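Annotated sample (chain length 365).
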Amino acid sequence: MNTHASGHQRHPIGSGATYAGSGVSIAAGEEAVDLMKPYTEKTHRPEVMGGIGGFASLFRLPINRFRDPVLASSSDGVGTKSAIAQALDVHNTIGIDLVAMVVDDLVACGAEPLFLQDYIACGQLDPERIASIVSGIADGCVKAGCALVGGETAEHPGLMAPQDYDLAATAVGVVEADDILGPDRVRPGDVVIGMESSGVHSNGYSMVRHVLLDIARLSLEGHVEEFGRTLGEELLEPTRIYALDCLRLARETDIHAYAHITGGGLAGNVGRIIPSGLTAVMDRRAWTPLPVFGYIAGHGRVQREEMEKAFNMGIGMVAIIGADDVDRAMAVLTARHVPSVVLGTVERSGHEQSRATLSGDHPRF
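Output written by the structure step:
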């Protein structure tokens, strides 16, 4: 894991300019690397070759496990959820969100996440804060079964405020060519299963901050009775990582496709895995959105249609499955402690009809 460094250090009058004087400290970067090593090492799989410090990371592809392996990759970030973490000075969970956003996109096509690399840009490098962020990334990688093999920490003095940072990551996975999931497998009569989210996850935080902090002027430290904790704690709840659950489900049942419910909401993302001529008809009465969504809607007078575009509304991952395997799938998810509901079915439709629709009204929302 390569790293650049931090710390403002004025050079003495009459001396030459230095890298530290420009706002970048190599020493702080090296300290950060030392602090993050224990976190990265706990994620290593047998295929990882070498350790932190090289110019590139090495991972031996386990091709002996596959007849026709296909690599899959995904890149993403956490968006403005990081602003909540920075405001509260809590940095050890935002990395879980980062991992979730990339590995759960990978698993949507049936790919097993193999390894991940992160990129952390900051205004001024604080080694302990960077190590705390990386500890969360490592926790997420453990939950997803993938290795954290490297990354980059870069200081951008003059471009970012000293306490600001932003996160991004790329993950690589592998899937047998014959096992790739997607719209070509979806058939009329298939069943739509929704897996419960842990909260807002990592999408829609620009609206969250606008409604709750700018309009309602609420305090992140304030206790909210509906949540049983502070507003900040609710908003920093880590994104649920479904990767290992989805891989197990694909091994044990007749899964046809997955949709990771991120920006665009439930209908928008499910529509991406439904082929032309079919539509996924889902019933809002199948589940009750988590309290946080009603809280946001109430304080901002946000219409349901707008909420459903911006947020997952309580469903973080969707599986399209053959009707004969629904009971088995629900049993697998229950055993893995993933609360799930049957949302609806896949039906034939005209070409002009939306590929995913929602009907009915949410109970108690």
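Annotation: Residues 1-13 have pLDDT under 50 and may be disordered.
Annotation: Residues 2-51+62-177 form a domain with the 60s Ribosomal Protein L30; Chain: A; fold (CATH 3.30.1330.10).
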